[in-house]
Amino acid sequence: MATRRAKKEKGGFQDVAVTVPNSAAVSRSPSVTLGPTQGVWSKLRRFQLGTGIYNDIRSRAPYYASDWTDAWNYRVIPAIVLIFFANVLPGIAFSLDLIETTQRYGVSEVLLSSFMASFIFSIFGAQPLCIAGVTGPITVLNKTIFNIIERQPNPPDYLQFVGWVYLWGAILHWITAILNWCNFLKYVTLFSCDTFGFYVSWVYLQYGVQVITRQFPTPDNSTESPVPTLDGAFVGIILAFLMLVTSYLFRTASRSALFHRHVRRFLADYGMPISLVAASAMAYWGRFNHANPTTLPTGRAFMPAGDRE
């Protein structure tokens, strides 16, 4: 029993008897305050199955609706245009390599699958603003699988085999998410991320050069249709440099003091799409068209590539 001096509401003090437990009997041990098993449970709680998924959804839930409603803004339109072309360009370059290597799927399959994967991830992944697209390692993986299969005496169907590979990859992702293995990334340095980023950037450059060099006629592509010509190859190089230079000029002008600020903003928003559309259209104009430059082999809309079923 202890006596505490308390102040009255209208002034003055009075002695109030307050029961306070003996301080010597109070233990500061977490195992005592939390119980014999709660202390261990609090340490192992972050390793519960699926807690990472639950925490991600719970942290994103308050902003999930605003991520969609905030999109009703004009600034989203140039962002959509820029992201669309930024995803289409590598998708076209890598799918061109896939259709020439595998003869099984190309531009239509890559673009449609990218859209389906992005749509599903944005709805069920609690990340509607995430940008998804095709990268170089995916193409390298598919080409490697195709080369391994083709060396077998009785090779399986390529598309079915790739489907099982990606299904197994999805299962590994599910296991990683459920067991919270991403928590161990804190023990991994950024060296792996930097090397992977360098690899992806170099793959983009390598594929860009490879697409141009393929337009030159060689003895082993004499049976292709249409047959590449030397004039068409030079036109392709001119158009590639034209797009590169005009995009760079638009970007430089948008950061300079030239023109009105609205003009600079327009160049910053639509400079790259304008360069891409203009360079692509010039391939069908005048003497450029007569040179017969190599264009992207495409089929009918929503139809498989390579004339397969």
From TrEMBL:
Residues 51-216 form the Bicarbonate transporter-like transmembrane domain. InterPro entries: HCO3_transpt-like_TM_dom (IPR011531), HCO3_transpt_euk (IPR003020). GO terms for molecular function: borate efflux transmembrane transporter activity; solute:inorganic anion antiporter activity. Keywords: Membrane, Transmembrane, Transmembrane helix, Vacuole. Pfam families: HCO3_cotransp (PF00955). Belongs to the anion exchanger (TC 2.A.31) family. It is a multi-pass membrane protein. The keyword Transmembrane helix applies. It comes from Antrodiella citrinella. This is Bicarbonate transporter-like transmembrane domain-containing protein. GO terms for biological process: monoatomic anion transport; monoatomic ion homeostasis. The chain crosses the membrane at residues 76-99, 111-138, 158-175, 227-250, 270-288. PANTHER family: ANION EXCHANGE PROTEIN, BORON TRANSPORTER 1. The keyword Transmembrane helix applies. One of its GO terms (cellular component) is fungal-type vacuole. Its main location: membrane. It is found in: Vacuole membrane.
